[in-house]
Design goal:
This protein has 46 helices and seven strands. The chain is mainly α. It starts with 13 loop residues before the first helix and ends in a 7-residue tail after the last helix.
Length: 983
């Protein structure tokens, strides 16, 4: 089996290939992702290669990249290397031009640009935009092999792409080894989150069956029919081990055949000449691209001898020419691991030293990922001084391309190396390395790691208490808050405040206290935020720290207005904006606008004023270059206010305006939430699910309660409109857990509690199993707490919360089969007083339902249904309208608008004669409900008639269609109405 025989044929993988081909076909209309897992050597790469070949034949652009097994892997390595390789070989001019343009713009300049986006988000955005543009030219397949070794930035990119891509013609494929838990650090959690998305599927690749292996052996060794028992015994269906066993046998090793993977590989290597063995060792120790010139420099052999040695290793199927035809790699990652592990310490040190010396004279364009690779080789060569300098250079290179996770790792290693280097030649101090590692971890969103690194700084000799320790502890507190550890953050901020000197350091005191107030506000601890902001204001003014003063006033104003005095709070917010404008600091100006608009469109319920202020703020954000960040968030606040005002068309165009600005990060999440709210209202449930899944994926581990609770409410609403109240309750349970962690924002919690109570009522009225007594008790406890806290809130908040509290009471009565029409009438009046027609229409529906269930005031119920119908039709609220039409049909109430094309009750046939033609319309309705399995009492409840009347109707039905039982009657209905749909 020499190299001339090519890649072994694909065999025994028909089902798995069919799954990948189905995903490729589905990706023609919307993005799909498949993650292929399996043991090392089981055949993942071979399977994906088959798909890639088919995709290329169909004219698809294919990007294929491999993660590399080194701690110092360059950021985004698999994707960037895939783009580089594809750009060199791409025959389509438009596609090649897009890739070359993107490569020319990398690395990006450090720092923030005018958009105000975090650099890491901007780079993810740039890669995402390239994928979108490539897919617009022709369908795209992105393959990332060996995800268990992928750097953090690459894993983040895959999550970002899965969340952000929707209708683009993109198929993402990742392969990973599932038999090396230690190597897959962080990957399992990422895969678990990704698999929750509908566009993502998993494919577990097991060993080949014995039949498939036998078929392969006929291709690999056609003249050796007796090999199968031995190969099966050695490999147990592992394709790599099977192939290596066959190669060993065909190579003459019939005695002492190796039994372990390590022995299989090493026995193959031992058959090479000493020179070819050195080539194999050098190729295994190299990382990243290994062009011929670099290998020649490392081995320093005569050209003819080197070429002959390489050819020998290639012919034996151990070394392969890589994809771009310019360098080499070993045939399988397993080979690389075995060969590297078998090197003697002296051999390993010498090879890495040679690589480091050879790379030292190279430039980045000639050797991509040079800084990280150089750091790796000097470290493995055991030269701490050179390794330190190279590692610091790699850290700074990662910072330049905003790969903060990789920068963190490099700075941590630099801190480790500093203590092994004599003091004189040190380029940096350990404290600087740890400080920059912590900042990089904060930017990467790895807040727990940032806390650990800051603890190292605080416990080391570099800090000796006082002001420096206070500032470090405040940073630690900020990271704790970002990690969701609110209690620990409060304690750490308390320590930071206590460490501040008694006098002086006013700017630092203001900085610590102001940061504390912001963290408390984000955690919904408005009382604590107000106290900390008050304490920060005096030192900020004393130190002339106007930017801190403006941010502190914004927090103070929001908290005051929410808790006790809207007038004083609004004045503080106005002052915050004035101070921010004097500083000219864009971030401070943006924050002041955001706090003001959030307050007006949210808790204070001054919706019209809030929309106008948001529009003014958007104009200002454009002038400051913050349109894609603060400007987008202002637009989403405006859209949410317009939604509540019932101006849904305006809200839709406002959301579209925000999305057209191509937001990223938190701003993009805000837009998706606003858009999903509109989609839910208008019945575009799948579109809403797409947005909510994306938000859930991107924000699950990082979003605080201020974003998490609205997301959970919308997820519950989606399940309620899908008629899955039990699933809605599952989301509500999670939301209540978040609320019980200490959130003060009853304005946000009120919809959460109402959705939970509505889900309880829907389970009861739908005949589904009710929530457990513990769940019901929990809901009632939160209702009581909502009522208690709402009664002590400022008037604007109290009014909205009391409305939700009354809705919860009305839903509870519905859940307990004791509908309260009077409560729903009061709810309707309150929502109309708040100028919010959508919940008012819902309340009218429930009032009509309650009246009809009591068989009283039919005229009032009809009026409510017609009013609710008019509102729902004007808004385009299709799910609500469907419920209104359904109730009207069951109650035989005529509505103003056209009848829905699909009805729960089949229309009477107009053509021909049949057994049902003798039934009246009401009898047909009763028979339709009976066929679904309802009892007489349940039919009476649904059709708003007495149980006795139902019995009379059933007797007449039996007589007219000539049956004697419910089963027979149901069968007649099914035969006569084959297209009718049961409930």
């Amino acid at each position: 089996m020499g190299d001339e025989e090519g890649v072994p044929g694909l065999c025994g993988r028909d089902r798995e290939l069919a799954e990948l081909l189905a995903a490729l076909h589905a990706a023609n209309s919307r993005t799909r992702a498949v993650f292929v897992g399996g043991a090392a050597g089981v055949g993942k790469t071979r399977l994906v290669s088959e798909l890639v070949g088919i995709a290329r034949q169909r004219g698809t652009t294919v990007l294929t990249g491999h993660a590399i097994d080194i701690v110092d892997a360059p950021p985004f390595w698999p994707v960037v290397s895939a783009i580089r390789n594809a750009a060199r070989s791409e025959s389509d001019d438009a596609t090649a031009s897009l890739m070359n343009r993107w490569l020319a713009e990398l690395p990006l300049a450090a720092g923030l640009d005018d958009s105000g986006l975090r650099p890491s988000i901007r780079l993810l955005d740039s890669l995402h935009q390239l994928i979108v543009e490539l897919a617009a030219v022709r369908p795209l397949v992105l393959v990332v092999e060996d995800l268990q070794w992928a750097d953090r930035s690459t894993r983040d990119l895959l999550v970002y792409l899965v969340a952000s891509l929707s209708h683009e013609t993109v198929l993402i494929i990742g392969t990973y080894r599932d038999d090396s838990p230690g190597q897959a650090s962080g990957l399992n959690a990422v895969l678990a989150e990704l698999r929750r998305q509908r566009k993502v599927s998993g494919l577990e690749l097991g060993p080949l069956t014995r039949t498939a292996l036998a078929e392969l052996l006929t291709r690999w060794a056609p003249g050796h029919p007796g090999l199968e028992p031995l190969v099966w015994q050695r490999s147990a269906g592992n394709a790599f081990i099977a192939e290596e066993t066959v190669r060993a046998i065909l190579g003459g090793d019939t005695l002492g055949l190796p039994t372990t993977l390590r022995e299989v590989v090493l026995s193959r290597i031992a058959m090479l000449s000493p020179s070819a063995q050195r080539v194999t060792q050098a190729v295994a120790a190299g990382v990243g691209p290994l062009p011929h010139a670099l290998l020649a420099e490392v081995l320093d052999q005569p050209p003819a001898v080197l070429l002959e040695s390489i050819r020998e290793a290639v012919k034996q199927g151990i070394v392969l020419v890589d994809e771009d035809g310019d360098g080499y790699r070993l045939r399988h990652g397993l080979m690389t691991e075995v060969v590297v592990a078998d090197l003697l310490p002296g051999e390993r040190i010498e090879i890495h030293r040679r690589y480091a010396l050879a790379l030292s004279g190279k430039s980045e364009p000639a050797q991509p990922g040079l800084a990280a690779r150089l750091a790796h080789h000097w470290y493995e060569a055991g030269d701490p001084s050179r390794a330190l300098a190279a590692t610091v250079a790699a850290a700074r290179a990662s910072e330049r391309v905003h790969a903060h996770a990789e920068a963190t790792r490099h700075w941590q290693r630099a801190a480790e190396l500093v203590v092994r280097v004599a003091a004189a030649p040190r380029a940096v101090q350990r404290s600087e390395c740890l400080d920059r590692a912590a900042r990089a971890a904060e930017l990467a969103g790895d807040h727990e790691l940032a806390v650990d690194i800051l603890d190292q700084l605080l416990s080391g000799q570099e800090t000796s208490g006082g002001l420096a320790s206070a500032l470090l502890t405040a940073r630690k507190a900020s990271s704790l808050a970002a990690a969701g550890r609110a209690h620990d953050a409060r304690e750490a901020y308390g320590v930071a405040v206590a460490l501040l000197p008694g006098e002086g350091a006013q700017a630092e005191r203001a900085q610590v206290l102001s940061g504390y107030s912001v963290a408390l506000l984000q955690a919904m601890d408005f009382a604590g935020a107000r106290t900390a902001a008050f304490a920060a204001l005096t030192p900020a003014r004393s130190a002339g720290a106007s930017t801190i003063e403006a941010k502190t006033l914004a927090v103070l104003g929001f908290s005051q207005a929410y808790l006790e005095d809207p007038v004083a709070g609004s004045a503080a917010l106005a002052e915050a904006l004035a101070v921010a404008e004097r500083t000219g600091e864009p971030a401070a100006i943006g924050e002041a606008h955001l706090r003001r608009v959030e307050l007006l469109t949210g808790p204070l319920n001054q919706l019209i004023d809030g929309v106008e202020c948001a529009r003014q703020g958007v104009v200002r954000m454009h002038s400051l270059g913050l349109a894609r960040t603060a400007g987008v968030t202002l637009l989403t606040h405006a859209a949410n206010a317009l939604f509540r005002l019932g101006r849904w068309d305006e809200a839709q165009s406002t959301v579209a305006e925000a999305w057209a600005l191509a937001p990223s990060g938190a701003a993009a999440l805000e837009v998706r939430l606003a858009r999903s709210r509109l989609d839910l209202g208008r019945g575009r449930l799948e579109a809403a699910a797409d947005d909510l899944e994306a938000v859930d994926l991107l924000a699950r581990s990082t979003a605080g309660p201020r974003h998490r609770i609205p997301l959970i409410v919308l997820l519950a609403a989606l399940e309620l409109w899908r008629k899955c109240p039990a699933e809605a309750l599952r989301h509500i349970e999670e939301g209540l857990t978040v609320a019980e962690a200490g959130a003060d924002d009853i304005w946000s919690l009120a919809p959460l509690v109402w959705h939970g109570t509505r889900a309880w009522a829907d389970t009861t009225t739908s005949g589904l199993p009710p929530p457990s007594p513990i769940q019901i008790r929990r809901l009632k406890d939160h209702q009581a707490e909502l009522a208690r806290r709402g009664s002590n809130a400022v008037p604007a908040i109290r009014s909205v919360v009391e409305t939700f509290t009354l809705m919860c009471a009305a839903e509870t009565a519905r859940a307990e089969d004791n509908p309260d029409a009077g409560a729903w009438e009061r709810v309707t009046e309150l929502w109309e007083r708040h100028h919010q027609p959508y919940p008012a229409a819902y309340a009218r529906l429930r009032r009509a339902e309650a009246l009809l269930s009591r068989h009283s005031r039919a005229a009032a119920a009809s009026d409510d249904l017609r009013n609710a119908e008019r509102i729902a039709r004007r808004l385009g609220a299709e799910p609500l309208l469907a419920d209104i039409v359904d109730l009207a049909a069951r109650a035989r109430v005529s509505l103003d608008g056209p009848v829905q094309p699909e009805s729960r009750v089949p229309a009477q046939r107009r053509v021909g004669r049949g057994p049902l033609d003798a039934l009246t319309a009401r009898e047909l309705e009763v028979l339709t409900e009976l066929a679904t399995g309802l009892t007489n009492r349940e039919i009476a409840h649904r059709l708003f008639i007495s149980e006795k009347t139902v019995g009379v109707h059933i007797s007449r039905i039996y007589m007219k269609i000539g049956v004697h039982s419910r089963v027979q009657a149901s069968a007649v209905l099914q035969r006569s109405r084959p297209a009718s749909k049961p409930r």
